[in-house]
Amino acid sequence: MTWLRTLRGRLAAAFAAAVLGTVLFFSTATAIAIYAHDYNERVAFAGAPGQAEGWVGDDLHDAKKLGIAMLIVSPIAVVGAALFGLWLAGRALAPMHEAAARARRALNGDGELELPVRGVGDEWDELAQVTNELLQAQAQVTIKAKAFSANAAHELRTPLTTMLGEVQVTLRRDRSAEEYRTALQIVEGEARRLGRLVEMLLALARADAGTLNPATIRFDLARAARLAVDRAIVAHRGADRRLSLRLVPATVMGDPLLTGRVLDNLLDNALRHGGEHVEIALEIVAGVVRVAVSDDGPGVPDTIRDRVFERFSREGAPATGFGLGLAIARALAEAQGGRLWLDDGARGARFVVEFPAVPD
To answer: What is the pLDDT of residue 351?
Structure first.
């Protein structure tokens, strides 16, 4: 009875059982009706026994013929129902067998998994379409994760290789105190670079996992922008002559520390790759607060505008940094319910971060 272990076999058996039950029910109901009619005739014609016996005999004879017919027809009906059930179940379950075959081929590395869509618009097609969309999304996530891991490994290997090489060269012979100092300064610089990269990777990993847990407090976005400018002046020589502010008081709800990092990354990007003048401007538009960081440089080439927020993207820019600043800025903004985009119509490069405004 191994065929009963399959869904197709169980469906066929259920179909046959339903037909058999229907036949037995109507047979029993018919027999009861005949015998009830027989009883009523016996009672009604109790005074004319000859007539009653004739009618009753005919009823019993008809009942026997009906019973024999049921005995003959029932097995045929049940077998036919089982065969029809097998055929119907086979057609209904055919997409599942095809899906299993495709999954087996995908497991063996022969192509990507995709469920068959028959185009009839039934429940299977709906399930297959949604599942295919989910599989495609998961495939894209996997591809991005692999690319991210490969890029991260490359970026981590570069400072480590530099540090190890500098130490090995320094230790080949005795050197003066100044030479040792120079070597240690190089190692320190690469160690700081490595630390910044690890911090960035951790921030992105937490953003992807949804574990950033940003604070939700009221704070003045204009003050956060001024503090970001102060930090940029310390980090970039001559930034005080290049930066200008155009701010208005604006209260938003979010995390001031994460917002500060967003603005730090935007200012760092503008000061590294922009022109001679960088402006940070704040405005309130239709219930939202926007902070725009713009420069008068050549702007972002049209060929890479759609990839400017990709991780490890350094196209069209000098080979400095890790290519993670804009990606982290967008992730931190979105974690607070905001958004960050590149203004298409601006002269130079203009990045805009937006947060919902909070009434004072």
So the answer is: 92
Cα–Cα distance measured from residue 198 to residue 262, given in angstroms and rounded to the nearest whole number: 17
Fold of the 217-356 domain: Heat Shock Protein 90 (3.30.565)
CA distances to 25, 27, 84, 254 from 22, rounded to whole Å, are 5, 8, 16, 67
Question: What residues does each domain of the chain span?
Answer: 2-107, 125-209, 217-356
Q: pLDDT tens, 262-307?
A: 999 899 888 888 888 999 999 988 888 999 999 888 888 777 777 8
CB 167 within 8 A of CB 187: yes
Instruction: Count Cβ neighbours within 10 Å for each residue of 8-19 and write b for 16 or more, e otherwise.
Output: bbebbbebbeeb
- The owner of tokens 């996997």 is 142
Count the residues in the chain: 360
- Whole-prediction pTM value? 0.57
Residues 118-153: tens digit of each pLDDT: 777 766 777 778 887 887 777 777 776 776 676 667
Domain 125-209 in this protein, CATH class: mainly alpha
DSSP 8-state assignment for residue 210: T
